């Protein structure tokens, strides 16, 4: 069912972020079993700044897209996130032959990308590099994670 958390109580002058994970583009989207996305907020050293959340399994798969349409409530006021923090999205799916859930790819959003409205972010090869040192794009094809951000300010 996922491990989504509710929105934090608002504080005067502070901003909360809701991210709607719309869909992810993958060339083999239709073959992914029970796909979901793990969302975490990490500092430059890869340390969690908020509780990690998992989306429920995707709603549907269509062509080269896995559709989620799920809202994630970031569990910290934007103003309280450390400089250099980033929000990570790890796309995971079940591998029946190996009997475990594998991370297929990941994407991340840095603090300067937080603004209201739609955003598409690039997908990178696993393993997830929380320190953002050795990033390799997943493919040469234009495949992205499609998000929509809503800022809530008191």
From TrEMBL:
Residues 5-152 form the C2 Aida-type domain. The keyword DNA repair does not apply. PROSITE patterns: C2_AIDA (PS51911). GO terms for molecular function: phosphatidylinositol binding. GO terms for biological process: determination of ventral identity. Pfam families: Aida_C2. InterPro entries: Aida_C, C2_domain_sf. GO terms for cellular component: membrane. Keywords: Developmental protein. Belongs to the AIDA family. Acts as a ventralizing factor during embryogenesis. Inhibits axin-mediated JNK activation by binding axin and disrupting axin homodimerization. This in turn antagonizes a Wnt/beta-catenin-independent dorsalization pathway activated by AXIN/JNK-signaling. This is AIDA protein. It comes from Phaetusa simplex (large-billed tern).
């Amino acid at each position: 069912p996922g491990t989504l958390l509710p929105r934090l109580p608002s504080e005067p002058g502070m901003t909360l972020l809701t991210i709607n994970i719309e869909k992810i583009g993958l060339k083999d989207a239709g073959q992914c079993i029970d796909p979901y996305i793990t969302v975490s907020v990490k500092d430059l050293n890869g340390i969690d700044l908020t509780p990690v959340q998992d989306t429920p399994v995707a709603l549907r798969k269509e062509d080269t897209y896995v559709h989620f349409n799920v809202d994630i409530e970031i569990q910290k006021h934007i103003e309280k996130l450390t400089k250099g923090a980033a929000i990570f999205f790890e796309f995971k799916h079940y591998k029946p032959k190996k009997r475990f859930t594998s991370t297929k790819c990941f994407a991340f959003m840095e603090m300067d990308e937080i603004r209201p409205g739609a955003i598409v972010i690039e997908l990178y090869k696993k393993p997830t590099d929380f320190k953002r040192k050795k990033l390799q794009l997943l493919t040469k094809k234009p495949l992205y994670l499609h998000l929509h951000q809503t800022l809530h300010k008191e």
